[in-house]
Amino acid sequence: CGLSIKQISAIKYLVKKEISATLPELPEFVETQLFFQGRNAWVFAWNLTEESVVENSEIFLEVIVKLKKSFHEQLEFKRYHFSCRVEIEENVYQSRLFIENEGSQ
Fold it and tell me: What is the pTM of this model?
């Protein structure tokens, strides 16, 4: 797609941070335990849905977020689907994100 590994990693970080803020929280004791272990209850799967056009500096991603099996008893919905459009700026950390929740299961 014409991006460096560093740029892709930065974009994934920004998207993951934005999506994580919208996901439901686990009970506080579980969240605290995960925080101190440096772990997360969610698994992110990434797909580039359209070929990036370098001139327009946009990429389109499909992100599926799944709750790890060991936490299934904690939440009703176990899977979330997001569509993302990223307008890439020269400083990739200032890229604009447009994220839409396509639903949960």
Answer: 0.82
Structure tokens at 8: 């892709």
Q: Are 62 and 19 in contact (CB under 8 A)?
A: no
| 3-state secondary structure at position 19 | helix
Please report where in the chains the tokens 């689907």 appear, as a residue. 81
Q: CA 14, CA 9: separation in Å to the nearest integer?
A: 9
Element (H, E) at 11: helix 5-20
pLDDT at 40: 86
Q: With contact defined as beta carbons under 8 Å apart, do 3 and 52 qualify?
A: yes
Strand positions, DSSP E, 1-105: 42-53, 58-67, 79-87, 96-104
pLDDT value, residue 62: 92
Instruction: Look at the chain and count its residues.
Output: 105
pLDDT single digits (tens) 86-97: 888 888 888 899
Cα–Cα distance for residue pair 100/38, rounded to 1 Å: 27
